[in-house]
Amino acid sequence: MTPFHFAILGLGNIARKFAEDLALIPDAKLVAVGSQSLARAEAFAQEFGAVHAAGSYADTFSGPRVDAVYIATPHVTHRELTIRCLQRGIPVICEKPLGLNLAEVTEMVEVARAEKVYLMEALWTRFLPSTLKLKELIDGGVIGDVESIRSDFGFRAKDLHTALPSSTAPAAAPDLSRNRILNPALGGGALLDIGIYPQFLSQFLLGEPAEIRATARLSAAGIDLDTQVTCRHAHGRLSHNYSTILGRTKTEALIIGSKASLHWHPRWHEPSSFSLLRDQDTPPENFYFDFGEANGYRYEAEAVMADVRAGRTENEWWRLEDSLALHRTLTEVRRQTGIRYPQE
Ligand SMILES: NC(=O)c1ccc[n+]([C@@H]2O[C@H](COP(=O)([O-])OP(=O)(O)OC[C@H]3O[C@@H](n4cnc5c(N)ncnc54)[C@H](OP(=O)(O)O)[C@@H]3O)[C@@H](O)[C@H]2O)c1
Questions:
Q1: Which protein residues are within 6 Å of ligand 1, measured from CB?
Q2: What is the pLDDT of residues 33-63, one digit of tens each?
Q3: CA 323, CA 120: separation in Å to the nearest integer?
Q4: At 107, which helix (H) or strand (E)?
Q5: Per-residue pLDDT at 178
Q6: What is the pLDDT of residues 66-94, one digit of tens each?
Q7: CATH class of 4-124
Q8: SS3 letters for 60-84?
Q9: In the chain, where the domains are located
Q10: CA separation for the pair 286, 293 (Å, rounded)
C-alpha cells in the first residue's frame, strides 16, 4: 500500500511520543516536521527519518506530499494552526483540547465542514484496545446499566510553588514561558490538560450531561489547580470527574453498573488494564492487553489513516459532534469556576 505521509507541527514532548508510535506502523511515514526552531526540526527529522525539516510551521508543507498533519503545540495555538491547515486542504489530527473554549472549537469544526477536510481531536484514549474492550463489555450488557462513574487524573506540576498564593517566591523565579501547565498565556491548568479525560469518559458512557456543577481552586493568575465536576446525565445518573495539578492521584476509573462494576486500573487513560467486579464473593476478572512497544498513540494514528484513505471527513468513534459536546461542558465548567485566559 502507498505509505501514508504524516507531518508534525510543534516538536515537544507529545510529538516525540507520537513519532515513536508512527515508526511502529508499517505503512505510515513521517515525512515533514515543523518547528519554531530550524535546528530542532533538523534534529527531530534526523532522529525519526523525516525528509523535510522546516524552521516555521508554514514551511512544513513545501516538501513532500502530506496526507495528514498532527498538531502538537500548546492549546492556545490549536485554533489558528488547525484552520490554516484545513484551508490548505490538509487533513488534521489536533491534540486535545481541540480549542481553548467552545467558540474556538465551533469555528474549527465549521471550517472543516465548509472545506470538507478531515478533522479529529486527538482523544487517543477512545482508540485504545482497553477502551474498545470495555465498551464491548458494556454494550454487551455485562455490567447492566451504567449507573455512575467516578474517575480522576492528577499529577504535581513542575514549579507549582510559583502558582500557590501561600508560597514564598524563590530568589530566582523559574521561567514559565514554556511551561504550558502553569502559564495562563499557554492555556495552563488542570481542566484543559487532564480534566478533559474524566469528562470524556463520563460523556462517552453516559452522554452529554443535562446538569453540571463544578468547583475549582484557582491560582492567582486564574488557572485551575484542582477541579471537581459533578454531572447529571440522562435518567439522573451521576459522574464525578476530578483533576488536579497539585499532586499525584491514583488516576483510575470506577464504572458502576447495575449488575457489576468495572475498575479501570491506573493510569486508566493510557495503555492500561481493567477488572470486572461482580459480587463480593466472586474474584475480579482481569483484562490485560499487550500494547507492545506502543505508547498508545498508534491507534488514533491508524484511525486517521483509515479515515483519510476512505475519504471520510471525520472519525465515527470520535466525531466532531463528540468534540463539540465535550467542549460545551468544559466551557460551562470554566464559566462556573472562573478559569480565565488572558487572550480571551
Ligand atoms: N494526548 C496526550 O497524551 C497528550 C500528552 C501531553 C500533551 N498533550 C497535548 O499536546 C499539546 C502539546 O503538549 P506537550 O506536552 O507536547 O507540550 P510541550 O512539550 O511544551 O511542546 C509543545 C511544542 O509546541 C511548540 N510551540 C508552539 N508555540 C509555542 C509556545 N508559545 N510556547 C511553547 N511551545 C510552543 C514548541 O515546539 P517547536 O518549538 O518545535 O515549534 C513546543 O515544543 C498540548 O495541547 C497538550 O494538551 C497531549
A1: 10-15, 35-37, 40, 72-75, 77, 95-96, 122, 124, 178, 180, 186, 193
A2: 999 999 999 999 999 999 999 999 999 999 9
A3: 8
A4: helix 102-115
A5: 78
A6: 999 999 999 999 999 999 999 999 999 99
A7: alpha beta
A8: HHHCCCCCEEEECCCHHHHHHHHHH
A9: 4-124, 127-310+317-337
A10: 21
